[in-house]
Specification:
heterodimer; A: mainly beta; seven-stranded mixed β-sheet; four-stranded antiparallel β-sheet; globular; B: six-stranded mixed β-sheet; five-stranded antiparallel β-sheet; 0% helix
Chain lengths: 113, 110
């Protein structure tokens, strides 16, 4: 199954600023997914990113707030824009691993102060 | 919207005890996956069940998929402190996206 390197692992940011999270996959994958998770709770899908097309956002998430790039089949970024304390969360990227389920990055713990 | 409800939300037991976690939905899923997540890490796949009524065993863990493919359970026998973590069920739909359950935080005390 694929291995995902996600960075940064954590960050503390000032409100009003933006943070870009990067995920690098060790193999080419068609679909990548971005999730948000409060510690100890479930994962909420933010968007699905396919290479060469616009990301598809879930209800409650918009491109202006969470722009996503997918320049090639091994890389994706998620930007959290104009941050507020409500954006404090864990952000995870993921990709489908064929018959091996989905593989996740180790997450980015974001704190907005 | 497909929803997956997990129960219990929190579970704290002594080493050696048995436990069962339930995952229920009103929707049918093509497959259902179970993950375990530890602090500071992403979820790690434990098992995928595909066929209604399917039972899979992974050492002390037994996973079952309901006949109608709407519910699943995870049973752990003789729990150990190393089993501590957040357990998540996730249903796969037609769009290849995962819908995650609400999660069960398990703590196994030595």
């Amino acid at each position: 199954s694929a291995v995902i390197s996600q960075k940064p692992s954590r960050d503390i940011c000032q409100r009003g600023t933006s943070l870009t999270i990067q995920c690098q996959v060790d193999s080419q994958v068609t679909m990548m997914f971005w999730y948000r998770q409060q510690p100890g709770q479930s994962l909420t899908l933010i968007a699905t990113a396919n290479q060469g097309s616009e990301a598809t956002y879930e209800s409650g998430f918009v491109i202006d707030k969470f722009p996503i790039s997918r320049p090639n089949l091994t890389f994706s970024t998620l930007t959290v824009s104009n941050m507020s304390p409500e954006d404090s969360s864990i952000y995870l990227c993921s990709t489908e691993g064929g018959g091996h389920g989905y593989t996740f990055g180790s997450g980015t713990r974001l704190t907005v102060v | 919207t497909q929803l997956l409800e997990q129960s219990p939300q929190f579970l704290s037991i002594q080493e050696g005890e048995n436990l069962t976690v339930y995952c229920n939905s009103s929707s049918v899923f093509s497959s259902l996956q179970w993950y375990r997540q530890e602090p500071g890490e992403g979820p790690v796949l434990l098992v995928t069940v595909v066929t209604g009524g399917e039972v899979k065993k992974l050492k002390r863990l037994t996973f079952q998929f309901g006949d109608a493919r709407k519910d699943s359970s995870l049973h752990i026998t003789a729990a150990q402190p190393g089993d501590t973590g957040l357990y998540l069920c996730a249903g796969a739909g037609s769009a290849r996206q995962l819908t995650f359950g609400s999660g069960t935080q398990l703590t196994v005390l030595p």
